């Protein structure tokens, strides 16, 4: 069964830290063609649009457009902080392979 993506509390907490909601913005997660594996994630702060799926917690929002939604079914959107840097990451069970940088995948 295809469920919408989930967002971890850590990802929502990071959005609160950067003050996205106070600027009327949400974290937009999209899938586009390209990258070294066929598809790539686009992650940016953006204003929600009418046809977006909105995932919300304590006023913080993550949005996914209707075209990207099937590619992100059952995925988990998280925030990772390591010595080499901090970034939003996606654990996508639909991806059959991924590149080393984690932003490109194939299905």
UniProtKB/TrEMBL annotation:
Coiled coil: none
Sequence ranges assigned to domain Core in this UniProt record: 6-102
Record GO terms (molecular function): 2 iron, 2 sulfur cluster binding; 4 iron, 4 sulfur cluster binding; iron ion binding
UniProt xrefs under Pfam families: Fe-S_biosyn (PF01521)
Source organism of the structure: Pseudosulfitobacter pseudonitzschiae
Name of the protein in question: Iron-sulfur cluster insertion protein ErpA
Gene3D superfamilies attached to this UniProt entry: HesB-like domain
InterPro entries: ATAP, ATAP_core_dom, FeS_cluster_insertion_CS, HesB-like_dom_sf
Gene this chain is encoded by: erpA
Annotated GO biological process: iron-sulfur cluster assembly
Highest taxon, organism lineage: Bacteria
């Amino acid at each position: 069964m295809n469920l919408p993506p989930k967002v971890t509390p850590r990802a929502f907490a990071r959005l609160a830290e950067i003050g996205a909601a106070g600027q009327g913005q949400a974290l937009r997660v999209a899938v586009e063609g390209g990258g070294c594996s066929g598809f790539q994630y686009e992650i940016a702060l953006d204003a929600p649009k009418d046809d977006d799926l909105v995932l919300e917690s304590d006023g913080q929002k993550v949005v996914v457009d209707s075209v990207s939604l099937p590619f992100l079914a059952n995925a988990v959107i998280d925030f990772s902080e390591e010595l080499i840097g901090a970034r939003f990451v996606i654990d996508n069970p639909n991806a059959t392979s991924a590149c080393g940088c984690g932003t490109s995948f194939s299905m």
